[in-house]
Design brief:
8 helices; 5% strand; disordered N terminus; disordered C terminus; 81% helix; 221 residues
C-alpha cells in the first residue's frame, strides 16, 4: 500500500508519495558516504606520500650541498689526484642527486633506486679521497708536506711537532673516511626503503588521486 504524505506550500497543498522522500534521503546518505570515502582516500594518500616527500626534500638539500662543496674544492682540483677525483666525484653525484630527486617527485621507484645507489657512489668517492690522502701523507707527499716545502721556515718554528702534525693529518682523514662512508651507508638504507614505499603508494592510491595529488592534499581537512 502506497503511503502518501501531505506537503504544504503557501497557496498550494498537495500530497507527495512517501517513497519519494525515502529515495531522496537515501541518495543524500549515499552522497555523504562517497564524499567521506574520497576524503579518507586523500588522507591515506597524503600520509603514504609524506616519507617520500621527505626523501625528495633531503635529496634536494644534499644535491645543493654537493654543488657548494664542489665549487669550494675547485681551486685545489689539480693539486693532487685525490683532489681531482673529489671534484669530479662531487660533480657526478650532485647531478645524479638532482635527477633522482626529480624522478622521486614524479613517484617513480627508479628515482629512489638512483638516489640509494648514488649514496654508495658518494661514499666510495669519500673513501678513495681519504685513502689517497693518507697514502700521500705516509709517503711524505701530503698537504702538510707541501706546505713545509713552500715555507721551509715553518718547519724550524714547529720543531719536533712536525711528526705529530703529520700523524694528526692521517688520523683526520681516517675519521673522515669512517664517518663519511658510514653516513652514506645510512643514507643508502634511507633511500632504498623509499622504493617499496613508492610502489605501495602507487598500488594503493586511486588513479584520480595520483593525477593531481599536490593540489588535492591542500583540501583535506
Amino acid at each position: 500500500m502506497r503511503v502518501m504524505q501531505e506537503t504544504e506550500v503557501p497557496g498550494l497543498s498537495f500530497e507527495m508519495p512517501g517513497d519519494a522522500l525515502d529515495s531522496k534521503e537515501s541518495k543524500e546518505v549515499s552522497l555523504e558516504k562517497a564524499q567521506q570515502a574520497s576524503r579518507d582516500a586523500l588522507r591515506a594518500a597524503a600520509d603514504r606520500r609524506k616519507p617520500i616527500d621527505r626523501a625528495a626534500g633531503w635529496a634536494h638539500f644534499s644535491a645543493w650541498g654537493l654543488v657548494v662543496m664542489g665549487v669550494l674544492s675547485l681551486p685545489g682540483m689539480f693539486g693532487s689526484l685525490g683532489s681531482f677525483l673529489l671534484v669530479v666525484g662531487l660533480g657526478v653525484t650532485a647531478t645524479l642527486e638532482f635527477r633522482g630527486r626529480a624522478a622521486l617527485r614524479r613517484l617513480e621507484p627508479a628515482g629512489a633506486t638512483l638516489l640509494a645507489r648514488n649514496q654508495l657512489l658518494l661514499g666510495a668517492v669519500i673513501g678513495v679521497y681519504c685513502a689517497l690522502n693518507v697514502l700521500a701523507s705516509l709517503r711524505g707527499e701530503g698537504r702538510y708536506d707541501q706546505i713545509l716545502e713552500s715555507t721551509p721556515e715553518l718547519e724550524n718554528v714547529l720543531g719536533g711537532m712536525s711528526a705529530m702534525i703529520q700523524q694528526l693529518m692521517i688520523f683526520f682523514y681516517g675519521v673522515v673516511a669512517v664517518v663519511g662512508v658510514g653516513f652514506q651507508l645510512l643514507s643508502w638504507r634511507f633511500h632504498n626503503a623509499r622504493v617499496a614505499m613508492v610502489e605501495t603508494h602507487l598500488a594503493l592510491t586511486p588513479a584520480w588521486v595520483l593525477e593531481d595529488t599536490a593540489p588535492l592534499k591542500k583540501n583535506v581537512a
